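quick one, 312 residues, struct below
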Amino acid sequence: MKIQCKLLTLLFAITIFACSSEDDSSNPPPTNNTIEASIDEYPTSGDLVTTVNSNLSGEITFSITSQSISQAMSIDSNSGELRVLAWQVFDYETNPVITLTVNATNGTDTENKAVIISINNIDDIAAFLNNSRTAYDNAANGQWISITESEYNDLANYLAEVTKSGATDNHFSSTASIEQNPGNSLLANRNGNTIPEGSYIFAFKHYSWANNVSGSKVKLSQGDEFGIYESIGTTLPEHNAEYNHFVIKGNATATSAEAHLAIFANNSIGFKSISGTIYGWGNGGDTNMITNGNINAVFLYQGLSTTLKQWD
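---
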């Protein structure tokens, strides 16, 4: 009887041990997880976005298996740190969300993580102003402020859906000499470089021949290049000779038709004699109409506009 009881006890213990071994695992099965994070528009390449963690034990290796925008981010295979790679694609207006799938493995088990990165909407113009940011932040809506050449070029190159009107880049880079126009006139290039309907003008540059110039204005005629030219924003800030660059704060009015860009130059302005080009002007100071025309010259001014409002 005692032997039978001992056998029953031993069988019971074996059964309990077997069940316990099946249910208690030191490496639980991996599970799929979702990681959500956010980052402001236009970060710097190398900025940390988030860190991916894993439930697996042992030495983990991380890799990106897919992402909604190719090469948007990179991952440290050891730490799981996700960092900005292609900073230009972190643009709320065009890519408000970027998604990735990250694989984690310890060599035996694997775990997949779905990563959702939300892009925070900020003022895109402000994002590209380094030296001029304080002046821009302090400006009132509709006010033009001076910016640097590099800031102007960054806005031209990186904001979405940008159109250049007035003089073209080829006109500016032409080997023709810069000549002097006396100014104090409404001046317009008429070479077909217009502003599309539904656009917001946001930046402007021109070549001044004089120092301490004030009172110059950016002007638009909508629909007809011989129509009424209205001022956009305030007068341009006082500026000196050679190239000057400006940005307008908070332009919220889109063009209602194809628009033609002009400048009222309150003093001497530069131009280049280039064969085959067309220009016009209005007599009598700050007029609002082009009444005269001629050929083979380009006034050195240019505007930047976009059909996608990217600021407050």
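The longest helix spans residues 2-23.
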